[in-house]
């Protein structure tokens, strides 16, 4: 059975909002130029709860603490990739970026996103998708 079925990596994204309803966007170092602004994200570790992946990735990339809410996206991605996204609420912490992964960060209103934001992020931010 193991040989016959596809193996997947799971990319997990957090739509992190503050108390004003703004969303956290990060300028990712490894993403293609012109599409570097996006949501906190990363790959789940084997056996890791996807909600915990959001908490871990936000902490690693920004040093912020979040509480994970509802599932907002579950898609099969490119080839053998599964994509999962959750709403998350900022709990606290001081913004400190991981310079190996993140170039910049900003809090944006859903109707005022950078022009070069990743297209997949826009409907998530605006609440236009369902799991």
TrEMBL record:
Pfam families: NUDIX. Its cofactor is Mg(2+). InterPro entries: NUDIX_hydrolase-like_dom_sf (IPR015797), NUDIX_hydrolase_CS (IPR020084), NUDIX_hydrolase_dom (IPR000086). The keyword Hydrolase applies. CDD domains: NUDIX_Hydrolase. Keywords: Hydrolase. It comes from the Bacteria. Residues 7-131 form the Nudix hydrolase domain. The keyword Membrane does not apply. This is NUDIX domain-containing protein. It comes from Streptomyces olivaceus.
């Amino acid at each position: 059975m193991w040989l016959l079925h596809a193996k997947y990596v799971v990319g997990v994204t957090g739509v992190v909002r503050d108390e004003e309803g703004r969303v956290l966007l990060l300028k990712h170092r490894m993403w293609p130029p012109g599409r570097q602004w996006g949501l906190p994200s990363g790959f789940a570790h084997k056996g890791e709860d996807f909600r915990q992946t959001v908490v871990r990735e936000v902490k690693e990339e920004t040093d912020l603490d979040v509480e994970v809410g509802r599932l907002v996206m579950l898609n099969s991605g490119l080839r053998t990739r599964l994509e999962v996204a959750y709403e998350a609420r900022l709990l606290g912490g001081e913004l400190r970026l991981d310079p190996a992964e993140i170039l910049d960060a900003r809090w944006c209103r859903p109707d005022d996103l950078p022009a070069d934001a990743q297209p997949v992020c826009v409907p998530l931010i605006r609440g236009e998708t369902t799991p």
